[in-house]
Design goal:
Helices cover 43% and strands 22% of the residues. The protein has 139 residues and is of the alpha+beta class. The longest helix has 21 residues.
């Protein structure tokens, strides 16, 4: 009975789409958010410096979360102040990725760390974010 009801609903949706001259099938919405690394004045990236020190499994976990952010999934993110956000990765040492949002379509990676160094990493990310905005405004 449930299958029949779902089938009838599906048929009605197709009929409605035909009436409205809409394409038949599923509609998928994809968010595309550019994820870029912050570069210091000397062209070094605090995020890359941290990321390159991770073992393979940790790097894969971090990459998975960055892909989610790039797809618009901010479910593991919270603000830590001054426009800086923290993505919590509940695995291993409790990894964190810090970033700022430059509008709705651009994320700037400011650094990373673990639960153990959390406050120091947050403070550094806030300094990088302030510098990023200052340099952007000067352009």
């Amino acid at each position: 009975m449930v299958c029949r009801k779902n089938t009838l609903t599906h048929i009605k949706n197709i009929q409605l789409k035909k009436k409205l001259d809409l394409p038949i099938g599923n509609v998928y919405v994809t968010f595309v958010i550019r994820v870029e690394e912050y570069l210091c004045v000397d062209e070094t990236s605090p995020f890359s410096n941290w990321f390159e020190g991770l073992d393979t499994q940790a790097a894969l976990k971090v990459n998975t979360y960055l892909t989610r952010i790039g797809n618009g999934n901010f479910s593991t993110v919270k603000g830590v102040g001054n426009g800086v956000f923290e993505c919590r990765i509940d695995w291993g040492a409790g990894y964190r990725v810090y970033f700022g949002k430059d509008g709705e379509k651009l994320v700037i990676l400011l650094g990373g760390g673990s639960k153990k160094r959390q406050q120091k990493d947050i403070d550094a990310a806030k300094v990088y974010w302030k510098e990023y905005k200052k340099r952007k405004k000067a352009k």
